[in-house]
Amino acid sequence: MVTIVFSRPELFWFILGLGLFLLELVIPGLIIFFFGLGAWITALVCLIFSPGINLQIIIFALSSLLLLLALRRVIQKKFLNSKRTHSDDVEDEFTGKEALATIDFGGIKQGKVEFKGTTWTAESGSEISKGQRVIIIKKDSFKLLVEPKK
Predict the structure, then answer these.
(1) Model pLDDT for residues 94-106, shown as the tens digit of each residue
(2) Would you state the pLDDT for residue 30?
(3) Rounded-to-integer distance, Cα 48 and Cα 25, Å
(4) 15 and 67, same structural domain?
(5) Which of 35, 46, 78, 88 has a C-alpha 20 to 30 A away from that of 133?
(6) Is 142 within 8 Å of 122 (Cβ atoms)?
(7) CB of 114 closer than 8 Å to CB of 83
(8) Residue ranges making up the domain that contains 40
């Protein structure tokens, strides 16, 4: 079986491309996908023509990199744009909502606030006292930017 795969380069490149596509499912990032496409393009070229191994590697590298550079952003915008919308929805879950300061903080000193039963790290440009109500301005990863409630 192994000798058949290596004696027929189109079969080798096809199987390599399939493996790379499956690897993209395990390690997402939309990069390995383009190397799978490059392998399949190389398999097609090997099926039609009979290039040497050096030319096969060049075809694989060039087609993979050109596809990556040309299409990655387009595909990300088209198919992965829903993640950005989801992120905005999560942001709206925090922005403008009220939280309770659990310690004194402000300026350069970080503090803690309680929001929906969870304690969050918080920062504020104003001085915040323990027990004071604050409004969440922005969520930055696991930190909330807050201001005093007026």
Answers:
(1) 889 999 999 999 9
(2) 84
(3) 29
(4) yes
(5) 88
(6) no
(7) no
(8) 2-79
